[in-house]
Specification:
6-stranded mixed beta sheet, alpha+beta, 716 residues, 47% helix
Length: 716
């Protein structure tokens, strides 16, 4: 590889880490303006980025950070005092540095009006001027005009034909271009929220940029080709969130337009340059790139490790078969092998003796080979287990990579909401699978946002309640068994169950008499239903009913679950429990209707043998007694294959006792084979829609086995 390319990669890797630490130190400095350690850390980070940028020839980064460095040197020498307004501008300078690095990573050079304003701000501080030092710099409202030819160029012939068909069937097809507010504190997830809202009222035919692209880069403008029965005003009412968006351009497509597709009159706010997809960079999330090698190399190593695990399982099965053959041979040929009996292998006594001796020696050598094979398989198993553990550790990163994003987010949201909030972060050394890092971020955003908006009271209200004026949100993570637990708690107002009950009745989600009889636990479950919110007014933070249902769905997709605990005027706590890894887990291999299934070991309490006398029909539900406790059971053959199971016909079955939310349930299976390490292979949700199946794997004999989703089966 060219040394200059390697040098640039090393610089970018280090610079992104320094930018992250820069934000942390700036937030510390905001709380403690005289913290010399934080000042030195900021100066060091900016100085190091400047030096690295100069080395690789990134002059725009070098010049910008040089000015930033000069200002921080003034702070170090106490010739400039820190104010809250300065910190806000310093944080925006950090954002600009990050944007410049992102563009350089793609081979582009970034510049903006905001960058120019910040340069003037730094220069004014150096010159001792006060005209710009009092507050934050205003944003430029310059707009760039671009036509929808960009969307046209992205449409395939199939998609254009599809649009023709939809229009002929009476559907309305629009081009919608959303201009996002760059000052919105959760701007990175805003396009995903618009995507979800549009999905509720129609069909998204095309999106530019794509969701994959938006996972790693913020785009000020996102366009959709969208089919619906709704009018333009209905689309605006449903999707235009004023705090999140600055503009929405709408164009209704006609067949005549499609024929020429000369849609050139729609104004756009910012040109979105088509990006050439780069497999090794676009698919790799920067938030988890803490290893000094490309992430895809670790993933490739894990794939090979998965193949080794499958091969190990295959060898173990062969070993079991060989052991059975050995036992049979020793039992059947016991008289011969003990020397008591000679086999009649020839009529000639001499040849008979020679053949018996040769066969006796051959059996002895074969049994010795069996023993050596067993020892080799055991040794291979130990080595592969150790290798597997080490490879999995390569994928584990501290959850600090997730938690470090929240102090700035909480600061900005609390400032906007005029609330005084302290964010306490604990358990940052707890490790999480790198593949989960970006997936868990959005659910945690929703949780923290709800704590701020619904939980933490305004200062005046807290004082009246005898609470400290400053609210407190605690984000904690720790390992528990084969799971990672993330807790988000606050000392706010807690959940008002009367308001929950009233809202459920108003929304007519359930009959009034049903809602009135609901327990507190059942009422809390309403919070996770789509469209449910108790907010008295809609704000840019929450109140639209889009949030906790998304949290629950996302966590369950990751193989986890969510718990909610609350006490009035004392606060709330949300507990997210996730598997340690999404790559290789331990499972119990079982047989149902002659098909192999795996039940994750982490969900299993015990395995018992049951017969028809053990089953009890209680109010139409089949249960078993387990140590004087009633345990509901699910016949997996009935669940997956809709076969009616007659208890009277059951002679002997295995019951796998699983635990879910502190309750036991029994899964009835035909046979139990044993525990194995399993490599998770995701299923295409468009092709496989069977409820209760989360993924698949390959077992030792090459057959496919399905991995059971315990929570989904119990929920159904």
């Amino acid at each position: 590889m060219d040394m200059s390319i390697e040098l640039v990669k090393d610089f970018l890797s280090e610079a992104f880490e320094l930018v992250s630490s820069l934000e942390e130190s700036l937030l510390v400095l905001e709380r403690e303006p005289d913290n010399q350690k934080a000042i030195n850390e900021i100066f060091r980070s900016v100085h190091t980025i400047k030096g690295g940028a100069a080395t690789v020839g990134f002059n725009e980064i070098k010049d910008f950070t040089h000015l930033f460095e000069d200002v921080m040197d003034m702070v170090r020498k106490k010739s400039l005092s820190i104010t809250k307004e300065y910190i806000s501008n310093f944080l925006e300078a950090k954002d600009e540095i990050e944007k410049m690095l992102v563009e350089r990573e793609k081979g582009n050079i970034y510049s903006s009006d905001r960058q120019s304003k910040l340069i003037e701000f730094f220069k004014s501080l150096k010159e001792g001027k006060s005209s710009t030092s009092g507050g934050q710099i205003s944003k430029s409202d310059n707009k760039e005009k671009v036509s929808t030819e960009l969307i046209k160029s992205k449409l395939t012939n199939f998609e254009i034909e599809n649009i023709h068909d939809l229009i002929e069937k009476g559907k309305k097809v629009y081009i919608l271009c959303y201009d996002f507010n760059e000052q919105y504190e959760m701007k990175d997830v805003a396009p995903f929220q618009v995507y979800a809202l549009l999905n509720d009222i129609g069909e998204i035919i095309k999106m530019e940029p794509t969701l994959n692209y938006l996972e790693s880069v913020f785009a000020k403008e996102v366009c959709f080709v969208f089919a619906t029965e709704k009018s333009e005003s209905e689309i605006r009412d449903k999707t235009f969130l004023s705090e999140m968006l600055t503009k929405l351009d709408v164009l209704l497509l006609t067949k005549e337009m499609l024929d020429g597709f000369s849609i050139k009159n729609l104004e756009k706010s910012q040109e979105i340059k088509p990006q050439q997809e780069k497999k090794e960079t676009e698919d790799t999330k920067r938030a988890t790139s803490t290893i000094r090698i490309e992430s895809w190399k670790v993933d490739e190593l894990l794939n090979l490790m998965g193949e080794l695990v499958i091969t190990k399982a295959s060898l173990s099965q062969i070993n079991d078969r060989m052991s059975k053959v050995e036992t049979v041979l020793k039992n059947v040929l016991k008289p011969f092998l003990s020397g008591v009996l000679k086999l009649n292998l020839d009529n000639d006594e001499k040849l008979k003796a020679e053949k018996n001796a040769l066969l006796f020696d051959s059996f002895g050598e074969m049994f010795q080979v069996f023993d050596e094979y067993k020892e080799t398989v055991q040794k291979l198993s130990r080595i592969s287990s150790s290798l597997q553990e080490n490879v999995m550790n390569l994928r584990m990163v501290p959850i600090q990579t997730v938690f470090s994003r929240f102090p700035r987010l909480v600061r900005d949201m609390a400032e906007k909401m005029k609330k005084d909030v302290e964010l306490v972060i604990e358990g940052v050394e707890t490790e999480i699978d790198k593949s989960m890092v970006d997936d868990i971020f959005d659910p945690l955003i929703h949780i923290i946002r709800n704590s701020l908006d619904h939980g933490i009271e305004p200062v005046e209200e807290r004082i009246k309640l005898g609470k400290p004026p400053k609210g407190r949100i605690v984000l904690n993570a720790y390992h528990e068994g084969d799971s990672i637990v993330i807790e988000a708690s606050d000392d706010g107002r807690g959940v008002d169950f009367d308001a929950l009950r009233k809202k459920a009745i108003e929304n007519k989600m359930f009959p009034k008499e049903v809602v009135e009889k609901m327990s507190q636990k059942e009422l809390l479950a309403l919070i996770f239903l789509p469209g449910f919110s108790t907010a008295k007014q809609v704000t840019e933070i929450s109140g639209r009913g889009v949030g906790m249902d998304v949290v629950k769905k996302k966590i369950e997709e990751m193989g986890g679950n969510v718990g909610f605990y609350t006490a009035k005027n004392k606060g709330s706590k949300i507990v997210v429990r996730l598997p340690l890894t999404l790559a290789i887990i331990q499972g119990l291999l079982v047989v149902v209707n002659e098909i192999h299934y795996f039940i994750p070991i982490a969900s299993i309490e015990e395995t018992i043998v049951v017969s028809k006398n053990d089953f009890k029909d209680i109010n139409g539900k089949i249960m078993i007694f387990l140590r004087e406790n009633l345990v509901p059971v699910v016949f997996l053959e009935e669940f997956f294959y809709h076969k009616k199971i007659s208890i009277e016909e059951i002679e002997k079955n295995y019951c796998i006792v699983v635990k879910s939310k502190d309750k036991n349930f029994g899964f009835i299976v035909d046979n139990v084979i044993g525990e194995q390490d399993i490599v998770i292979k995701p299923l295409n949700n468009r092709l496989v829609k069977t409820k209760g199946i989360s993924a698949a794997t390959i077992i030792g004999n090459g057959d496919i086995a399905f991995i059971i989703d315990v929570e989904r089966i119990i929920a159904n």
